[in-house]
Amino acid sequence: MNHVSEIFLKRVILKRILCHAAFSVKGVTLTQPKVKTVQQGETVTIGCKTSQTLSSCGSCVSWYQQKPGEAPKLLIYYTSSLQSGTPSRFSGSGSGTDFSLTISGFQTEDTGDYYCMKSYKNLRQSESQ
């Protein structure tokens, strides 16, 4: 029997979130759906739309997972690069204004909040943690 888990997704306004506080990001908003219900083993894709085109990877999208009571954890950086320790069932893709995070074979431990945010290629990934 499959367990049903909910992934709660939030609309993210860039200049308010996470640890890229060194930058004053203005004018770009990323929008995500609020909730998805997913069965264990299912492949799920979470979309993220930007209000402006993100050209090349001078500015890219990063994906974070947050579980209740825990700090956000970096999963994907530079749109599609897997952070060390991120399971291979996670992948990122996209360009322009449309980006996505895919979980191939959703597990109950994948339940949580997922955030997309604009990031910069000149940031070392250790600064994103």
From TrEMBL:
Name of the protein in its database record: Ig-like domain-containing protein
Gene3D superfamilies: Immunoglobulins
Annotated signal sequence range: none
Residue ranges occupied by any Ig-like domain in the UniProt entry: 26-129
SMART domains according to UniProt: IG (SM00409), IGv (SM00406)
One Pfam short name: V-set
Cited InterPro entries: Ig-like_dom (IPR007110), Ig-like_dom_sf (IPR036179), Ig-like_fold (IPR013783), Ig_sub (IPR003599), Ig_V-set (IPR013106), IgV_Light_Chain (IPR050150)
